[in-house]
Amino acid sequence: MAKLKGSAITDQDLAAFVASNSDFAFEMRVVAQLRALGFECSHSGTYRDPLTDKVRQFDIRAVIHEGKFTLALGLECKNLRPNNPLLLSAVPRTSAEAFHDLLVRNPQSPFPPCSVERVNEPHSAYPTGTMVAKKTDQVRRETSGTLVSNDEATFGKVNQAVSSCQDLVEEYARKPSQPWVRAVVPVLVVPTGLLWQVDYAADGKLDTPPRTVARASLFLDHAWSVDLGIGGKLRYRLSHIELATLDALPGIVKSYLGPRGFFAAW
What we know:
Layout: H1 11-20, H2 23-36, E1 40-43, E2 46-48, E3 55-57, E4 60-66, E5 69-77, E6 86-92, E7 100-104, E8 115-119, E9 131-141, E10 147-149, H3 152-174, E11 181-190, E12 195-200, E13 206-212, E14 215-227, E15 233-245, H4 249-256
Parallel strand pairs: 5-11, 6-12, 11-15
Antiparallel strand pairs: 1-4, 2-3, 4-5, 6-9, 7-8, 7-11, 9-10, 12-13, 14-15
C-alpha cells in the first residue's frame, strides 16, 4: 500500500531514497569513476561566483596530468530521472565554432605569467561538420498527458560548470605551475540512458530522430577576462560544454587526451 503524503519517513524510506534518488550518491559514483581514471578530485568545495559575487558550491573539480599537459574539468552532476530525460537538439558545427582555448605558461617569460592559445582546425577538438547541440530540453509528461519541457534546472547546472571553470582559469592564470599547457573544460554528467539527441541538417530539416547518446557537446562561446596586474589581462573563451553519461567517462577522457583531443596541436 502506498504511503500517504505527510506520513513519517522511516529508515527503509531513506535507504530507498539513497539507493535510487540521491543526488549526492550519484556525485559519489562520478567521483569514484574519475579517481579510478587517475584524476585528483575536489568534491563539494566552494567558490565565489564571478557574476553574482555569492559563495556557491561546486560538485566536482578534477585534474589529471599527462606529460607536459594538464586536463582540468569543472564537473556538475545532474541525477536525471527516467520520467524527465535530457534532450539535445543538434546541428552541424560551423567553422567559426570549431575551436577551443588552452592556457600556456612560458617559463622563460614571467610577464605575463600565462597566455591563451586559440586552437582552430585542423587541430581543434571540435571539428567542423560534426554535430553540436544548440538547445537543451528536459522533457516530462504532465498529469493531462501533455509533453512539456523546462530546461531551467539544466541551464542552472551548465552555468555552475562554467563558473567553476572560470575560477579554475583564474587560479592557474595568476599562479601557473607545471605542466605548462592546460585545458579547462566544463562537463555535465548524467545517468546512463537518459541523454538523448536529435539532429537537424543545416537547412533545418530533421536529419536523425531522437536516440540515446553517451556523449555530446553544447556550444557556449562564453568568454571573460582575468586581471593579471602588471601582466595585463588574459581573455579565455569556453567554446563548448561537454555532456556525458557516467559509463562513458573513461572513453571520453581517453579522447580528450588522445590525438584528436585538446592537445593535438602540441
